[in-house]
Amino acid sequence: MTRVFLLMAAAILTAVAACTPVTDTSGAYRIRNPDKVQLRMLDSVNALRAAAGAPAVQLNAELNAAAATHSRDMSVQNRPWHFGSDGSSPLDRITRAGYNGTLLGENISETYENEQQTLAAWLEEPATRAVILDPKAVNMGFSWFQEPGGKIWWTLVMAN
Length: 160
Hints:
By secondary structure, this protein is an alpha+beta fold.
């Protein structure tokens, strides 16, 4: 079952990746149009969720803000982990951002890869795949912080 799902996921991501921007002359992936990155991720996540029989999610401004804050903070700390430099948890961050729903999970990544490659990596791990496909999710937050050297810190939050 997992193998079939991963093959379906690969096909979906391949189709969506056709609209992924190319890298710059140094070979680094550069985020140039943030709105399109979020929408591509939302479309990819919803396609994967549909293939798994889960309902679609929508982007949520408060969750996006919490994800953006954490992505920048991971860069400052120079380590990918779920706790903020102030000791905050994912639940603390969504609450501070004004979100009143229930946190279902958070995926993070430190990489030089684009959002589609990051999503593919998350799908390979059962725990991060479960966050993306959680059937109780109705809202998604997604953001990143890109350092001048090209490293990107990604954060995805699912909630209801």
